Amino acid sequence: MKFINSINIDFIGKRRLAFIFSLIFIAISVGAYIFRGGPNYGIDFTGGMLMQISFEKNVSLQDVRSALENSGLNSFELQTSEKLILIRAKREVGSQEEFENKVKTALAEKFPDNAISIDKVEYVGPSVGEYLSKQALYAFFFAFIGIIIYVAFRFKSTLWGVAGVIGIIHDVIISLGMVILVNKEIDITVIAALLTIAGYSINDTIVLFDRMRENMRLSIKEDLAVMINKSINAVLLRTVVTTITVFIVSACLFFLGGEVIHTFSYIMVIGTTAGTYSTIFLCAPLVYEWEIGRRNRLKAARQQGLVRGK
Fold first, then answer.
1. Between β-strands 48-55 and 84-90, what pairing exists: parallel, antiparallel or unpaired?
2. What does the alpha-carbon distance between residue 245 and residue 251 come to, in Å, rounded to a whole number?
């Protein structure tokens, strides 16, 4: 990694290309939303059935899945703990009694020598989904407001907070778009993953902003683009190492973690990459554009005699 310390990349000079690149990915995400006809909401948001089953012997999750799919069930999720299986199915499976009978028949045929017992069957109404949808929106709204206030207070300017939140929104839109593109279900796990990405992204951004603010104080007369490039290159090694570490862990969970956390790890892989990209190619250039615009407006005001001083 020593070679990273010696490189000097002109990130600010490539900002317009980066803006176009971000717009392309956002357009792909919006296109996926339109093409898919909206998100594929899971049982957490649409309502449905919950069934817990106990087996006499251990069973393979894949065998349970294939048995249910062969019986005609398509929209369901499975969670397992040795002899316990938790089935979560959407509302389109029919009545509670029909769902229970279909599952019992399918599993009895698949596992004739393994006795099963139904521990519980519950119906999750659509009102629960509406409540969770509102809570998810509140979570994002208050997270964004909190981040703007915290970063604005820490850096004594709302500019830094707004730039950081724009980066988070960019990461969330792209991550969510990639989920919709591959038609994965949107459930509470997805919301948790998106909030995790938001936290990861702003943490990475604050580290860079901190270095930029420090250099702006120490190098007042230095060209702003040079100073920001110097700041990005200074934290580049730390950013690369952190990103690779999170990426490797997320990739391991994606390939080896099983069905339950598959979507979570998928979002982490996409979001980690998007978060690192937005910190360097979106948030820092936004601060540059704003600061250059502010200086130009101030210079014009001084030339017109509206503002005194140098």
1. antiparallel
2. 10
Sort 75 into a burial class: Cβ within 10 Å, 0-12 / 13-18 / 19+: middle
pLDDT tens, 126-165? 666 677 778 888 888 888 888 888 877 877 778 888 888 8
Q: Which pairs count as long-range contacts for 63-67, CB under 8 Å and 24+ apart, including other chains?
A: 63/110, 63/111, 64/107, 64/110, 65/259, 66/110, 67/106, 67/107, 67/109, 67/110, 67/111
Q: At what angle do helices 262-278 and 224-256 cross, to 10 degrees?
A: 170
- What token pair was written down for 201? 């992204």
Q: Is the pTM of this model over 0.85?
A: no
Count the Cβ atoms, other than its own, within 10 Å of residue 112: 8
**Residue 151: which of 225, 99, 201 has the closest Cα?**
201
